[in-house]
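Recap from last week: sequence in, structure out.
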Amino acid sequence: MAITIKDVAKLAGTSTATVSKVMNGSYSISEATANKVKQAMEELDYHPNAVARMFAKQSTKTVIFLATIEKNSGYSNPQLFEMICGLEQALSNKKYALLIKNISPDETPDYVENAMQCRICDGFVIHASVISKRLDSLFFEHEIPHIVIGTPNFKSHFCWIDIDNRLAGEMAITHLFRKGYQRPAYIGGKEDDNISNHRLEGIISVFEKHSVNFDERLIKRGESEPDNGYNSTLEILGKYNCVDSIICANNYITYGCVQALIERKVNIPGDIGVITFDDYPFSKVLRPQISVVDIDVFDVGVQAGKYILHKIKKPNTYVQSYITVPVLIERESTNKRETRLRKI
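Predicted C-alpha coordinates:
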Protein backbone atom coordinates (compact mmCIF):
# COMPACT_ATOMS: atom_id res chain seq x y z
CA MET A 1 0.00 0.00 0.00
CA ALA A 2 1.33 3.44 -0.92
CA ILE A 3 2.60 5.66 1.87
CA THR A 4 0.39 8.71 2.42
CA ILE A 5 0.77 12.07 4.11
CA LYS A 6 -1.30 10.67 7.00
CA ASP A 7 1.33 7.97 7.60
CA VAL A 8 4.03 10.62 7.77
CA ALA A 9 2.00 12.72 10.21
CA LYS A 10 1.37 9.69 12.46
CA LEU A 11 5.07 8.75 12.63
CA ALA A 12 6.16 12.36 13.20
CA GLY A 13 3.47 12.92 15.81
CA THR A 14 2.00 15.91 13.98
CA SER A 15 -1.07 16.75 11.93
CA THR A 16 -1.32 16.31 8.17
CA ALA A 17 -1.58 20.09 7.93
CA THR A 18 1.85 20.41 9.57
CA VAL A 19 3.36 17.89 7.16
CA SER A 20 1.88 19.83 4.23
CA LYS A 21 3.33 23.09 5.56
CA VAL A 22 6.79 21.53 5.94
CA MET A 23 6.69 20.25 2.36
CA ASN A 24 5.71 23.71 1.14
CA GLY A 25 8.36 25.47 3.22
CA SER A 26 5.97 27.35 5.50
CA TYR A 27 7.70 29.81 7.83
CA SER A 28 5.19 29.06 10.63
CA ILE A 29 6.68 25.64 11.49
CA SER A 30 9.53 25.39 14.01
CA GLU A 31 12.85 23.90 12.93
CA ALA A 32 12.50 21.05 15.42
CA THR A 33 9.06 20.05 14.10
CA ALA A 34 10.21 20.39 10.49
CA ASN A 35 13.16 18.06 11.18
CA LYS A 36 10.83 15.45 12.75
CA VAL A 37 8.62 15.53 9.67
CA LYS A 38 11.57 15.26 7.28
CA GLN A 39 12.98 12.33 9.27
CA ALA A 40 9.60 10.55 9.13
CA MET A 41 9.46 11.10 5.36
CA GLU A 42 12.93 9.56 4.99
CA GLU A 43 12.10 6.56 7.18
CA LEU A 44 8.90 5.87 5.25
CA ASP A 45 10.52 6.71 1.91
CA TYR A 46 7.64 9.10 1.28
CA HIS A 47 7.78 11.24 -1.86
CA PRO A 48 5.08 13.78 -2.82
CA ASN A 49 3.81 13.16 -6.33
CA ALA A 50 5.57 14.88 -9.21
CA VAL A 51 2.79 17.36 -9.81
CA ALA A 52 2.83 18.52 -6.21
CA ARG A 53 6.62 18.90 -6.22
CA MET A 54 6.55 20.88 -9.43
CA PHE A 55 3.89 23.30 -8.22
CA ALA A 56 5.48 23.76 -4.80
CA LYS A 57 7.84 26.22 -6.43
CA GLN A 58 5.83 27.69 -9.28
CA SER A 59 2.35 29.02 -9.94
CA THR A 60 -0.23 27.07 -11.89
CA LYS A 61 -1.86 30.35 -12.99
CA THR A 62 -5.24 28.70 -12.34
CA VAL A 63 -8.09 29.46 -9.96
CA ILE A 64 -10.96 27.02 -9.35
CA PHE A 65 -14.54 28.23 -8.84
CA LEU A 66 -16.68 25.84 -6.79
CA ALA A 67 -20.48 25.94 -6.91
CA THR A 68 -23.48 23.74 -7.56
CA ILE A 69 -24.29 24.38 -11.22
CA GLU A 70 -27.17 22.24 -12.39
CA LYS A 71 -28.91 21.99 -15.75
CA ASN A 72 -30.68 25.24 -16.70
CA SER A 73 -28.76 27.19 -14.04
CA GLY A 74 -28.24 29.92 -16.64
CA TYR A 75 -32.01 30.49 -16.52
CA SER A 76 -32.81 29.70 -12.91
CA ASN A 77 -29.79 31.56 -11.49
CA PRO A 78 -28.55 34.08 -14.08
CA GLN A 79 -26.82 36.08 -11.34
CA LEU A 80 -24.38 33.20 -10.85
CA PHE A 81 -23.49 33.18 -14.54
CA GLU A 82 -22.96 36.96 -14.53
CA MET A 83 -20.76 36.63 -11.44
CA ILE A 84 -18.62 34.00 -13.17
CA CYS A 85 -18.18 36.32 -16.16
CA GLY A 86 -16.87 39.07 -13.89
CA LEU A 87 -14.55 36.64 -12.12
CA GLU A 88 -13.15 35.35 -15.40
CA GLN A 89 -12.49 38.86 -16.66
CA ALA A 90 -10.54 39.84 -13.54
CA LEU A 91 -8.45 36.66 -13.71
CA SER A 92 -7.78 36.75 -17.45
CA ASN A 93 -6.56 40.34 -17.13
CA LYS A 94 -3.75 38.93 -14.97
CA LYS A 95 -3.15 35.92 -17.25
CA TYR A 96 -4.89 33.47 -14.92
CA ALA A 97 -7.22 30.71 -16.10
CA LEU A 98 -10.56 29.93 -14.44
CA LEU A 99 -11.66 26.33 -13.90
CA ILE A 100 -15.34 25.87 -12.99
CA LYS A 101 -16.27 22.84 -10.92
CA ASN A 102 -19.87 21.73 -10.38
CA ILE A 103 -19.96 20.25 -6.90
CA SER A 104 -22.15 19.61 -3.86
CA PRO A 105 -21.37 20.80 -0.31
CA ASP A 106 -20.59 17.22 0.82
CA GLU A 107 -18.13 16.65 -2.02
CA THR A 108 -16.30 19.97 -1.71
CA PRO A 109 -13.82 19.23 1.13
CA ASP A 110 -12.52 16.02 -0.47
CA TYR A 111 -12.16 17.72 -3.83
CA VAL A 112 -10.28 20.67 -2.32
CA GLU A 113 -7.96 18.37 -0.37
CA ASN A 114 -7.13 16.37 -3.48
CA ALA A 115 -6.63 19.52 -5.58
CA MET A 116 -4.37 20.91 -2.88
CA GLN A 117 -2.23 17.78 -2.66
CA CYS A 118 -1.87 17.65 -6.46
CA ARG A 119 -1.49 21.45 -6.59
CA ILE A 120 -3.64 21.85 -9.68
CA CYS A 121 -4.53 25.43 -8.80
CA ASP A 122 -3.25 28.43 -6.85
CA GLY A 123 -6.49 29.18 -5.04
CA PHE A 124 -10.25 28.78 -4.82
CA VAL A 125 -13.29 31.01 -5.20
CA ILE A 126 -16.24 29.33 -3.51
CA HIS A 127 -19.95 30.05 -3.65
CA ALA A 128 -21.32 30.19 -0.10
CA SER A 129 -23.90 27.51 -0.91
CA VAL A 130 -21.21 24.77 -0.95
CA ILE A 131 -19.25 25.71 2.18
CA SER A 132 -19.21 23.70 5.41
CA LYS A 133 -17.47 23.64 8.78
CA ARG A 134 -15.25 20.83 7.54
CA LEU A 135 -14.18 22.96 4.57
CA ASP A 136 -13.49 25.88 6.90
CA SER A 137 -11.17 23.72 9.00
CA LEU A 138 -9.39 22.48 5.89
CA PHE A 139 -8.71 25.96 4.56
CA PHE A 140 -7.60 27.21 7.96
CA GLU A 141 -5.26 24.31 8.76
CA HIS A 142 -3.60 24.25 5.34
CA GLU A 143 -3.56 28.04 4.78
CA ILE A 144 -5.21 27.60 1.36
CA PRO A 145 -5.77 30.83 -0.62
CA HIS A 146 -9.51 31.29 -1.03
CA ILE A 147 -12.40 33.74 -1.08
CA VAL A 148 -16.04 32.85 -0.43
CA ILE A 149 -18.74 34.76 -2.28
CA GLY A 150 -21.52 35.16 0.28
CA THR A 151 -21.68 35.40 4.06
CA PRO A 152 -21.16 32.08 5.92
CA ASN A 153 -24.15 31.21 8.10
CA PHE A 154 -21.89 29.95 10.89
CA LYS A 155 -18.85 31.30 12.73
CA SER A 156 -15.82 30.58 10.58
CA HIS A 157 -12.27 31.48 9.54
CA PHE A 158 -13.30 31.90 5.90
CA CYS A 159 -12.26 34.93 3.91
CA TRP A 160 -15.49 36.18 2.33
CA ILE A 161 -17.06 39.04 0.41
CA ASP A 162 -20.75 39.69 -0.02
CA ILE A 163 -23.41 42.08 -1.25
CA ASP A 164 -25.06 44.11 1.50
CA ASN A 165 -28.53 42.61 1.06
CA ARG A 166 -29.67 44.15 4.34
CA LEU A 167 -28.96 47.60 2.89
CA ALA A 168 -30.82 46.59 -0.26
CA GLY A 169 -33.90 45.79 1.85
CA GLU A 170 -33.63 49.15 3.59
CA MET A 171 -33.49 50.91 0.22
CA ALA A 172 -36.56 49.08 -1.09
CA ILE A 173 -38.84 49.94 1.85
CA THR A 174 -37.51 53.50 2.11
CA HIS A 175 -38.39 54.04 -1.54
CA LEU A 176 -41.94 52.78 -1.00
CA PHE A 177 -42.43 55.07 1.98
CA ARG A 178 -41.20 58.05 -0.02
CA LYS A 179 -43.67 57.23 -2.80
CA GLY A 180 -46.56 57.23 -0.32
CA TYR A 181 -46.99 53.49 0.27
CA GLN A 182 -47.54 52.62 3.92
CA ARG A 183 -48.64 48.99 4.19
CA PRO A 184 -46.20 46.65 2.37
CA ALA A 185 -46.16 42.86 2.25
CA TYR A 186 -43.03 40.81 1.64
CA ILE A 187 -42.83 37.65 -0.48
CA GLY A 188 -39.50 35.89 0.05
CA GLY A 189 -37.67 32.60 -0.26
CA LYS A 190 -37.63 29.71 2.17
CA GLU A 191 -36.50 29.94 5.80
CA ASP A 192 -32.92 28.96 4.89
CA ASP A 193 -32.61 31.49 2.06
CA ASN A 194 -30.00 33.85 3.52
CA ILE A 195 -30.28 36.45 0.78
CA SER A 196 -34.04 36.69 1.22
CA ASN A 197 -33.65 36.78 5.00
CA HIS A 198 -31.10 39.59 4.92
CA ARG A 199 -33.31 41.67 2.65
CA LEU A 200 -36.20 41.16 5.04
CA GLU A 201 -33.99 42.18 7.97
CA GLY A 202 -33.30 45.46 6.20
CA ILE A 203 -37.00 46.08 5.69
CA ILE A 204 -37.83 45.35 9.32
CA SER A 205 -35.00 47.59 10.52
CA VAL A 206 -36.56 50.63 8.81
CA PHE A 207 -39.89 49.91 10.55
CA GLU A 208 -38.06 49.67 13.86
CA LYS A 209 -36.39 53.03 13.29
CA HIS A 210 -39.89 54.50 13.15
CA SER A 211 -40.97 52.51 16.23
CA VAL A 212 -43.46 50.53 14.14
CA ASN A 213 -43.75 46.74 13.96
CA PHE A 214 -43.85 45.04 10.59
CA ASP A 215 -46.94 42.81 10.55
CA GLU A 216 -45.55 39.26 10.40
CA ARG A 217 -48.76 38.06 8.75
CA LEU A 218 -47.64 40.00 5.67
CA ILE A 219 -44.43 37.97 5.35
CA LYS A 220 -44.86 35.08 2.94
CA ARG A 221 -42.19 32.46 2.30
CA GLY A 222 -41.73 29.70 -0.21
CA GLU A 223 -39.70 28.56 -3.20
CA SER A 224 -37.98 31.30 -5.19
CA GLU A 225 -40.25 30.60 -8.15
CA PRO A 226 -43.20 32.27 -9.92
CA ASP A 227 -45.72 29.90 -8.32
CA ASN A 228 -44.79 31.17 -4.87
CA GLY A 229 -45.19 34.76 -6.01
CA TYR A 230 -48.55 34.00 -7.63
CA ASN A 231 -50.06 32.01 -4.75
CA SER A 232 -48.74 34.32 -2.04
CA THR A 233 -50.14 37.35 -3.84
CA LEU A 234 -53.58 35.74 -4.13
CA GLU A 235 -53.46 34.97 -0.41
CA ILE A 236 -52.53 38.58 0.37
CA LEU A 237 -55.34 39.93 -1.82
CA GLY A 238 -57.86 37.59 -0.24
CA LYS A 239 -56.99 38.22 3.42
CA TYR A 240 -55.40 41.66 3.71
CA ASN A 241 -57.27 44.36 1.85
CA CYS A 242 -55.13 47.05 3.51
CA VAL A 243 -51.89 46.07 1.69
CA ASP A 244 -50.84 48.81 -0.73
CA SER A 245 -47.47 47.46 -1.91
CA ILE A 246 -45.53 44.21 -2.29
CA ILE A 247 -41.78 43.69 -2.00
CA CYS A 248 -40.63 40.57 -3.84
CA ALA A 249 -37.31 38.92 -2.94
CA ASN A 250 -36.36 38.22 -6.57
CA ASN A 251 -37.50 38.47 -10.19
CA TYR A 252 -39.06 34.99 -10.32
CA ILE A 253 -41.31 35.69 -7.36
CA THR A 254 -42.11 39.07 -8.91
CA TYR A 255 -43.22 37.45 -12.17
CA GLY A 256 -45.84 35.35 -10.37
CA CYS A 257 -46.89 38.30 -8.20
CA VAL A 258 -47.54 40.55 -11.20
CA GLN A 259 -49.49 37.81 -13.00
CA ALA A 260 -51.77 37.42 -9.98
CA LEU A 261 -52.34 41.18 -9.72
CA ILE A 262 -53.16 41.44 -13.42
CA GLU A 263 -55.49 38.43 -13.21
CA ARG A 264 -57.40 40.08 -10.36
CA LYS A 265 -57.46 43.40 -12.23
CA VAL A 266 -55.44 45.18 -9.55
CA ASN A 267 -53.88 48.38 -10.86
CA ILE A 268 -50.09 48.62 -10.63
CA PRO A 269 -49.01 51.03 -9.20
CA GLY A 270 -52.26 52.80 -8.28
CA ASP A 271 -53.73 50.05 -6.12
CA ILE A 272 -50.57 48.16 -5.26
CA GLY A 273 -46.96 49.12 -5.90
CA VAL A 274 -44.39 46.41 -6.65
CA ILE A 275 -40.63 46.49 -6.12
CA THR A 276 -38.02 43.74 -6.39
CA PHE A 277 -34.27 43.13 -6.40
CA ASP A 278 -31.86 42.69 -9.34
CA ASP A 279 -32.50 44.05 -12.79
CA TYR A 280 -33.04 40.75 -14.62
CA PRO A 281 -34.43 38.62 -16.03
CA PHE A 282 -38.02 39.96 -15.84
CA SER A 283 -38.04 43.48 -14.36
CA LYS A 284 -37.80 45.18 -17.76
CA VAL A 285 -39.99 42.64 -19.58
CA LEU A 286 -43.04 42.84 -17.31
CA ARG A 287 -45.65 45.55 -17.81
CA PRO A 288 -45.55 47.85 -16.07
CA GLN A 289 -41.78 47.72 -15.79
CA ILE A 290 -40.72 46.91 -12.23
CA SER A 291 -38.73 49.16 -9.90
CA VAL A 292 -35.68 47.36 -8.53
CA VAL A 293 -32.88 47.63 -6.06
CA ASP A 294 -30.15 46.48 -8.40
CA ILE A 295 -26.95 44.69 -7.44
CA ASP A 296 -24.07 44.60 -9.92
CA VAL A 297 -23.24 40.91 -9.64
CA PHE A 298 -20.73 41.18 -12.49
CA ASP A 299 -18.75 43.55 -10.29
CA VAL A 300 -19.01 41.08 -7.42
CA GLY A 301 -17.23 38.56 -9.65
CA VAL A 302 -14.60 41.12 -10.60
CA GLN A 303 -13.95 41.95 -6.95
CA ALA A 304 -13.73 38.25 -6.05
CA GLY A 305 -11.09 37.84 -8.76
CA LYS A 306 -9.04 40.74 -7.42
CA TYR A 307 -9.26 39.46 -3.86
CA ILE A 308 -8.19 35.90 -4.67
CA LEU A 309 -5.21 37.13 -6.69
CA HIS A 310 -4.18 39.35 -3.79
CA LYS A 311 -4.66 36.42 -1.40
CA ILE A 312 -2.45 34.19 -3.57
CA LYS A 313 0.26 36.86 -3.59
CA LYS A 314 -0.09 37.67 0.12
CA PRO A 315 -1.51 34.61 1.96
CA ASN A 316 -1.75 36.44 5.28
CA THR A 317 -4.41 38.80 3.89
CA TYR A 318 -7.70 38.37 5.75
CA VAL A 319 -10.94 39.60 4.19
CA GLN A 320 -14.48 39.65 5.59
CA SER A 321 -16.41 42.54 4.09
CA TYR A 322 -19.42 43.71 2.12
CA ILE A 323 -18.79 45.07 -1.36
CA THR A 324 -20.80 46.62 -4.21
CA VAL A 325 -23.38 49.21 -3.15
CA PRO A 326 -26.96 48.49 -4.35
CA VAL A 327 -28.58 51.04 -6.67
CA LEU A 328 -32.27 51.96 -6.79
CA ILE A 329 -33.84 52.01 -10.27
CA GLU A 330 -37.31 53.55 -10.17
CA ARG A 331 -39.79 52.48 -12.83
CA GLU A 332 -43.55 52.49 -13.39
CA SER A 333 -44.46 49.87 -10.78
CA THR A 334 -43.93 52.30 -7.87
CA ASN A 335 -44.79 55.54 -9.64
CA LYS A 336 -47.98 55.95 -7.64
CA ARG A 337 -50.91 57.32 -9.61
CA GLU A 338 -54.50 58.09 -8.75
CA THR A 339 -55.82 55.14 -6.83
CA ARG A 340 -58.52 53.14 -8.55
CA LEU A 341 -61.17 50.98 -6.92
CA ARG A 342 -59.74 47.50 -6.58
CA LYS A 343 -61.76 44.68 -8.13
CA ILE A 344 -61.14 41.35 -6.51
